[in-house]
Amino acid sequence: MLHRRTLISASAVAAAAIALPRVFAQQAKLEKSKVSIAVGGKAAFYYLPLTISEQLGYFKAEGLEVEISDFAGGARALQAVVGGSADVCSGAYEHTINLQAKNQFFQAFVLQGRAPQIAVGVSTKNLAGYTGIQDLKGKKIGVSAPGSSTNMVANLVLSRGGLKASDVSFIGVGVAAGALTALRSGQIDAISNTDPVMTMLEQKGDVKIISDTRTLKGTEQVFGGPMPAACLYAPTDFVLKHPNTCQALANAIVRGLKWLQTAGPGDIIKTVPETYLLGDRALYLASFDKVRESIATDGLVPAEGPKTALNAIASFDTAVKADKIDLAKTYTNDFAKRAKDRFKA
């Protein structure tokens, strides 16, 4: 009996010895296990996949120790990566185009959102008699942070109404309680922001929505095609030097996207931090229902998406020359494809 137990123990040890190197080898493949991610307004639904992947331990499951730093807007999060204090940015895809126009090469490697989820609304108090875009001339427009995607959408709406960015004043208000306060207190006349902020303002009658990209249909109307939105992107050099790390990050996000496809309202409430609800669970969930279809399903950047983004930016930003941008260098679907296959997303 003892002999048999010894044999079993020896077999178990041998099996463990064979299995363990594989586990460690898998972890050792990560060129960088500690990764810092900068995000601009983590509480917004725009970045819900990032929060879900973090809260459910999907980054840890990939052998990653992820530190997420939250900034007032995407432009500030980008500055952290450009400045070297963060490795990866969880931000808007179009930043990769703007950066390339400045001869800085960044690459998106997993998509979180397939619509910008940004709505533009005018204050029903400050602009009660609003009739059209021209009424915004000389007014203050709240955005998450100057230079962020909320700013970009506002610029696009203004340009289509015959106004330039210089015809208004942009004020950074964040994407949470500060944005609500700025609009309701009359500090700003209009706002370009994400959910849950916009739905909360809309349902309380504080704003009149004049442009909406929270749905795929609305995005098509505003941009004329599919518009990639939130993604993980990093300097191209980082992606090239850390392919296994980027794969692990993409795996975690795509796993989060798959979870979100079947998650119910109760699942969301249990998973996100209480502060994200902004004191109103019902409105938070109403916001989630509104933007749910705009969340990416498999992490892949749609084929026509980059061109849609480039055309939109070039239409109002003279610094971006469409014929000078190499879109193929702004993103890769290689990591997301592997993650999609692995998790059947």
UniProtKB/TrEMBL annotation:
Among SUPFAM superfamilies, the record links this protein to:
Periplasmic binding protein-like II
Q: Which GO biological process annotations does it have?
A: alkanesulfonate transmembrane transport
Database matches in SMART domains: PBPb (SM00062)
Name a single GO cellular component.
Answer: periplasmic space
The yes or no answer to whether the keyword Signal is present is: yes
Superkingdom, taxonomy of origin: Bacteria
Read off the InterPro entries from this record: Solute-binding_3/MltF_N, SsuA/THI5, TAT_signal
Where is it located? Periplasm
What are the Solute-binding protein family 3/N-terminal domain coordinates in residue numbering? 34-267
What start and end residues bound the annotated signal peptide? 1-25
What UniProt keywords are attached to this protein's entry? Signal
Q: Does the keyword Signal apply?
A: yes
Family, as annotated: Belongs to the bacterial solute-binding protein SsuA/TauA family.
Q: What is this protein called?
A: ABC transporter substrate-binding protein
Organism of provenance: Acidovorax cavernicola
